[in-house]
Amino acid sequence: MPAFRQVGEKQLPQEVVFMAWSPKRDLIALANRAGEVLLHRLANFQRVWSLPPNENTGKEVTALAWRPDGKILAFGLTDTKRIILCDVEKPESLHSFSVDSSITYMHWMEVTEESSVLTSFYNAEDESNLLLPKLPALPKNYSTTAKIFSEEKSDEIMKLLGDVRLNALVLGGSSGFIEIYAYGMFKIATVTGVAGSCRGLCLSSDLKSLSVITEIRDSSDSEAEITYFQASKLDTSLLSSYLPEVTRMARKFTHISTLLQYIKLSLTCMCEAWEEILMQMDSRLTKFVQEKNTTTSVQDEFMQLLLWGKASLELQALLMNQLTVKGLKKLGQSIESSYSSIQKLVISHLQSGSEALLYHLSELKGMALWKQKYESLGLDASGIEDAITAVGSFILKANELLQVIDSSMKNFKAFFRWLYVAMLRMSEDHVLPELNKMTQKDITFVADFLTEHFNEAPELYNRKGKYFNVERVGQYLKDEDDDLVSPPNIEGNQWFNFLKNSTHLKESPLLFPYYPEKSLHFVKRQMERVIDQCLQKPADVIGKSVHQAVCMSLYKTSQSEDSTPQLFKLPFLWNDKTSNIHYVLFTILENSISKIHILRRHTDTSRSVSSGILAVEFGNFLNNSIDESSDSRCYSCLDAHFYDDETVTVVLTESVEQEGKERVLAQLPLSSVYTDEDQDREFIWDSTKRLDEQSGEIPSRIVFLENQWRVLENMKAQYVAVNGIRKVSCVLSSNLRHVRVFEMDVEDDGEVEEEEEEE
């Protein structure tokens, strides 16, 4: 009876370059050569969704990691150097950010450390929920938001916040690049002093130690050297001793990043509503103006109609045939609805989003002023003060836009009403008496509208809506650095004059600076830049507190490996949360057998716990009929991963030269490797040499697997991905297209007795 039950098998169209099991559900994420990210279910390996590559994000996925709660999947792209956080429910990017180097490895861990301060912080209701109104849901009817949000609830942007318990996304890249992001969003540390490009990372769950495996290439030498670094990372114990403060600060920063994303999406919706207006104007009015072939301008003709109540024949023909009464009514309605939706977005979304930003920044400033707790983490009150000022300027700009929309709508309505009446008269229809009344004020509105919108502005001819200037609102939504085409008129404004003449108020820190010449987008970008700067400092401060404790050179890679994708190759790192030990798995080729080696180091480098290293050989367990005297070491290890803290899952191949080598999937219990007899055979590490040069002295173990293995028939298995929490594994063939999925613990007939046999 073979152990492990096969639950699915598939041939995939594209080569898989990465796979990662979800920590909480039976889902596996795959990335393939084409740059797609796919999510599959364990049962029959059916596909849940796929996210195709696109220009903005990138095409070359080089790393995958799940958030510990399994709700968000992060992946890194090499070509654009971006990290994308994607919702597990829907293949859409919720958040993305750029990094300075191409990412080669990601690891997302959760802090399990407990303390009374932390527990009270985790349990306390987030005050902002009580004090701030709930952010209004973003409207679904715009293409940008419709893609991201599923129908029922659009507070999905808040999913980014996740659980209060601190989790950290550790990114490793080429040329010694390592960064740690709290909650996957806010950069909490930039680690320096590690050489080579990262092949594996592991941050211990008490934040005391970071292990890194890197590959160092000398230009002269084509073979790369694999080195193991253990930075006893926070040996100033900065992150671990200030854990409550770090968690609080990171939580605030995550709120702020989420709000910035929310404001960005609201602005995108506003721009879409604006495009809608331009399209309406273009389709109806431009044609109308183009067909006019007299010398007088449109503006003059309309003015004439307004003053004398009589239109030239040409204008009359144009209005009646081109625009028509019905068309005019429709145009008026659609423009009005677009205007009011922009107005709603400003009032409900931009303003409530930026007020929430102000609240969180002010709280952050309060933290920064509590110097004994937060100063050593690099929080800087003056930087946060600048950020608050920048948000204030953004709110002012949004208010100014509201006023502009308000006045534009007044003029628009008056103009459409007047033109409607004029056209009814031309067609000699009955005009309702209430439409007929026009006050002096209305006439001024119409005249304003004509001078403003129908003035020939040659510099606008290359833009949309070129025959009339509808830029008054649009100029605020342009994502350009140009100044506003027609900035608001501030002459005679008493407040401005008062400010101008008052020497004390000019420089007052209480007044938010106001940029009359700039667009809303410009002010928003400036706000994002300032906030980014004030979030940058803690990362540098914490990163500089990291010191390298150990550096060991492991082995040289062989040339033959280089064709396989980086992502699967051993070495593999694992952090045992309960006993805080880092394990490293790697293979060293010896007499054409690749032996699996297990290196273990305690995360607390000051402790004198033995950092043992062992080589493991697999005794013959397939065909016992072979003469016992023949050499029983006949398996090479192809891939190995930690299944849980006690077990390693391995893929083995027979090393006997024969046709049809069998591939085997097996579970290797650590208890059968680490026995008490190891104490006398302590390996003395010669730090001047690489490990593979002294492999003869490494204590070695022969293990006979009882029934925890299964032959993989008709499959050239090469790689394995496992998840011990869900008890599943996925085996990938050497051509990277053939996948098999297994449930590992099917029958539980008591403990499997491990028989120890010494060589």
What does this structure look like?
The chain has 759 residues and is of the alpha+beta class. The chain has a domain at 243-542. It contains 16 helices and 29 strands. The strands form seven sheets. Strands 18-19-20-21-25 form a five-stranded mixed sheet, with no helix packed on it. A hairpin with a 5-residue loop joins strand 4 and strand 5. Helix 5 crosses helix 7 (313-323) and helix 10 (381-426) crosses helix 12 (440-453). The longest helix is centred in the middle third of the chain and has 48 residues, at 243-290.
Query: How many helical stretches?
Result: 16
Rounded mean pLDDT is 77
pLDDT < 50 runs, ≥5 residues: 148-154, 231-236, 458-467, 559-568, 624-631, 748-759
Radius of gyration over C-alpha positions, nearest whole angstrom: 34 Å
End-to-end distance: 28 Å
**Percent range for helical residues?**
25-40%
Structure summary, number of beta strands: 29
- Percent strand: 25-35%
Q: Structural class per helix/strand content?
A: alpha+beta
Largest beta-sheet details: 5 strands, mixed
Outline type: elongated
Strand order in the sheet with the most strands: 18-19-20-21-25
Structure characteristics:
single chain, 759 residues, alpha+beta, 5-stranded mixed beta sheet, 4-stranded antiparallel beta sheet, 29 strands, 33% helix, disordered C terminus
